[in-house]
Design a protein that fits this description.
Blueprint (H helix, E strand, L loop, with lengths): L1 H20 L7 E3 L18 E3 L6 H5 L10 E6 L3 H13 L4 E4 L15 E5 L6 E3 L5 E5 L4 H10 L2 E2 L11 H5 L7 H4 L6 E7 L5 E5 L3 H9 L5 E8 L1 E2 L4 E9 L4 H13 L8 E10 L3 E14 L6 H8 L5 E8 L3 H4 L21 E3 L4 H15 L9 E6 L3 H4 L15 E6 L7 H22 L17 H5 L3 H14 L14
The structure holds flavin-adenine dinucleotide (FAD) and 2-acetamido-2-deoxy-beta-D-glucopyranose.
Organism: Emericellopsis atlantica
InterPro entries: FAD-bd_PCMH, FAD-bd_PCMH-like_sf, FAD-bd_PCMH_sub1, FAD-bd_PCMH_sub2, FAD-linked_Oxidoreductase, Oxid_FAD_bind_N
Protein name: FAD-binding PCMH-type domain-containing protein
């Protein structure tokens, strides 16, 4: 987006000259030469909006996605400057029978996105900003605001709310699937904080909805399916603790059973993990530590302290890690510590395919963890072409999530304590390789699934590969499926929002 902002400035100068020559109604800035083919969309948009055609210099940058798999294709990028511009763009697309898709942080990675071909990218970058209410209990967040901007803006005002942990994604992308974040143990998911929102529906109409509106249920967990959110009002809180501590352990793969036995006993605690404790682990190659097999990076995080309490850290220290590094700082340090800050590798667009195969777990089944480690190490260890992969296990505290009535949102998986997902990173090289990766991901997920004893595995929609079914993503209960499908028929009868893990009717 950096290139885009610079070029937008120079384009503005060009606009100033043409504007005086042609005293027409305000219209969006047009870059490149698809615009005649777009048949007058520009004249329907506000003066600060922009349209980029494939021959515009900025186009490639503005359509480059984080994961180079299952890619949508774009005939033009529309950058609305107002909510009404979003509405006009959707109406225009409908009139001309052109598919459209919201582009926000560009990190959506489900292969279902490939179904959008030759469509309009509705780039929400100009709908950005955060405003705390006069009484300090809520904030209005514009639909295209980046997650770090939300965190930093609130922090500057002495406030915080539940946001995604990663600095490079949008606020809204995670939230529409429920949304996991550092503060969920206190307050619930991102979407649980919502008071009201403005949304452009499939027919282009603008609706304001609150928690009494039937659509709000669907927005909280299956929201990508129902509209384009232009702004949301969310609860915010005074900063409870500014200090946070982390202890980062590196274990070798042969310690996998000991590590997760300790995590079950001393951290997860039968689903009652202390609200101030979070742990994540990444299985990845670190040739300095082990040239053959992936190591286990274990992040143990605690809020309100400058060093992790011994009662949580000592059982892990006792296993004998390869390394053990404690750090302390503030809430704002967490993303850099866990490798998901703006300048961390997972935030870069490197041209790799980055599919995940998510599954929610109640607990770590130790024999299954051992089995899946061995499968993963055999596939990604050493000089494998999948050698940059990361197997993620995220164990946030859950009190706030479990306190919300499960029936009250489309997000269906409030009982689960661990979000697991292999992220297989590779250079794309055709369908045969993609299939090999999909088979590997399915196998790893199935190993964990078998140990849950459940018929259907449960998967986080925002990590989905795109081969999951609606029960996997939105809950197997028939009432959930019926309710979702009924709302889909009412609000999006022609399935305009059908590219991101669609609700099938
Ligand atoms: C490095 C990394 C870290 C992550 N960390 C977290 C995390 O901490 N917590 C978490 O819950 N998830 C996390 N995720 C997953 C994340 O929720 C999804 O990748 C999400 O799709 C990213 O949204 P985006 O706006 O960046 O991507 P985009 O590709 O721009 O958006 C994804 C989809 O969301 C929809 N969409 C986006 N904005 C809007 C809007 N305003 N209105 C309507 N629809 C919209 C569109 O359908 C779009 O296709 C992470 C992903 C990555 C890659
Ligand atoms: C925390 O972040 C601040 C600001 O970026 C930085 O100066 C400091 O070094 C960080 N602390 C740690 C321990 O990483």
């Amino acid at each position: 987006m950096r290139g885009f902002q610079l070029s937008a400035l120079s384009a503005l100068a060009a606009w100033a000259t043409t504007a005086s020559a042609a005293p027409k109604a305000p219209r969006g800035l047009e870059h490149g030469s698809c615009v005649p083919g777009l048949n007058g969309l520009g004249v329907r948009l506000s003066a600060d909006s922009e349209i980029y055609c494939p021959d515009a210099a900025e186009f490639d940058d503005m359509t480059l996605r984080w994961s180079a798999l299952g890619l949508p294709t774009v005939r033009a990028v529309v950058v609305p400057a107002t909510e009404k511009d979003v509405s006009e763009t959707v109406k225009y697309a409908n009139q001309h029978d052109v598919p459209f898709l919201a582009y926000n942080g560009f990190h959506g990675a489900t292969v279902t996105l490939e179904k959008m071909q030759n469509g309009l990218s509705i780039n929400l970058a100009k709908l950005a900003g955060v405003k705390v209410s006069a009484d300090g209990t809520t904030a209005e967040i514009q639909g295209g605001t980046n997650s770090k901007v939300v965190t930093d803006s609130l922090w500057a005002a002495g406030k915080q709310t539940v946001t995604g942990t990663c600095e490079c994604v949008s606020y809204m992308g995670p939230a529409l699937g429920g949304g996991h974040g550092w503060l969920q143990g206190h307050h619930g998911l991102l979407a649980d904080q919502w008071v009201s929102m403005n949304v452009v529906l499939a027919d282009g109409s603008i609706q304001t909805i609150d928690n009494d509106h039937e659509l709000m249920w669907a927005m909280k967990g299956a929201g990508h399916n129902f509209g384009i959110v232009t702004s949301v009002t969310t609860k915010v809180y005074d900063i409870a603790h500014s200090n946070w501590a982390i202890e980062t352990f590196t274990f070798s793969g042969d310690q996998v059973e000991a590590v997760y036995t300790a995590a079950n006993t001393h951290l997860l605690d039968g689903g009652d993990q202390p609200v101030d404790v979070i742990h994540w682990s990444y299985w990845l190659n670190n040739p300095d530590a082990d040239p053959v097999n992936p190591v286990i990076i274990f992040y143990l995080i605690q809020e309100g302290v400058d060093a992790i309490d011994d009662k949580y850290a000592q059982p892990l220290r006792d296993i004998g890690p390869i390394s053990d590094e404690p750090l302390s700082g503030t809430y704002l340090n967490l993303s850099a510590w866990t490798g998901i800050a703006l300048d961390s590798p997972p935030c870069q667009k490197l041209g790799t395919a980055n599919p995940r195969f998510p599954i929610y777990l109640d607990t770590f089944d130790v024999p299954a963890m051992k089995e899946v480690y061995d499968q993963y190490a055999a596939a990604v260890g050493g000089d494998s072409q999948f050698g940059h992969s990361i197997f993620m296990f995220e164990a946030y505290s859950m009190q706030g999530v479990k306190a919300v009535d499960s029936a009250s949102t489309a997000f269906a998986f409030r009982g689960e304590n661990v979000l697991a997902a292999p992220l297989i990173i590779y250079q794309p090289d055709g369908p045969a390789l993609d299939q090999q990766v999909e088979d590997l991901g399915n196998q790893l997920r199935e190993t964990l699934h078998k140990a849950t004893g459940r018929d259907e595995y449960r998967a986080y929609v925002n990590y989905a590969y795109g081969n999951e079914d609606n029960k996997n993503l939105y809950g197997a209960e028939s009432w959930r499926q019926c309710k979702l499908q009924a709302l889909k028929k009412t609000y999006d009868p022609e399935s305009k929002f059908s590219f991101y893990n669609p609700v099938n009717v």
